[in-house]
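Design job #97: recover the sequence.
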């Protein structure tokens, strides 16, 4: 290989590594709350609807159970970012509810998000993205 070709290849490799480094830094710097919000909205957009039972509410966490294809799952969801969507008396929510879960990973589920609520007795969204 002659020198100009080798220099050009090294330059291309350096630029590619720089782009990769910037992408990694930006991805790592995102807040965990942003990541959780993206997860919730993703499950809402692509998830399947199912039946759940809210079993307990403790602080900012809702505990629930549900069955998918004969397998029973017990899940919980931190709702600290969604407090405005939860009624002032959350103990009234214990009982039947709806949930959304990822078809390929049923353990990835939500009871409520910014655009949808499976909790009974909470105000529903405008219905634009159910």
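Job complete. Output follows.
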């Amino acid at each position: 290989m002659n020198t100009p070709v080798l220099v050009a290849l090294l330059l291309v490799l350096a630029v590619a590594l720089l782009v990769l480094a910037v992408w990694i830094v930006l991805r790592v710097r995102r807040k965990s709350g942003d990541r959780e919000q993206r997860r919730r909205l993703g499950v809402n957009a692509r998830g399947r609807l199912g039946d759940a039972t809210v079993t307990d509410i403790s602080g900012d966490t809702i505990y629930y159970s549900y069955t998918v294809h004969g397998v029973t799952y017990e899940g919980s969801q931190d709702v600290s970012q969604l407090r405005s969507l939860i009624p002032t008396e959350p103990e009234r929510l214990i009982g039947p509810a709806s949930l959304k879960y990822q078809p390929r990973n049923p353990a990835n589920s939500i009871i409520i998000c910014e655009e949808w609520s499976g909790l009974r007795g909470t105000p529903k969204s405008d219905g634009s993205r159910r």
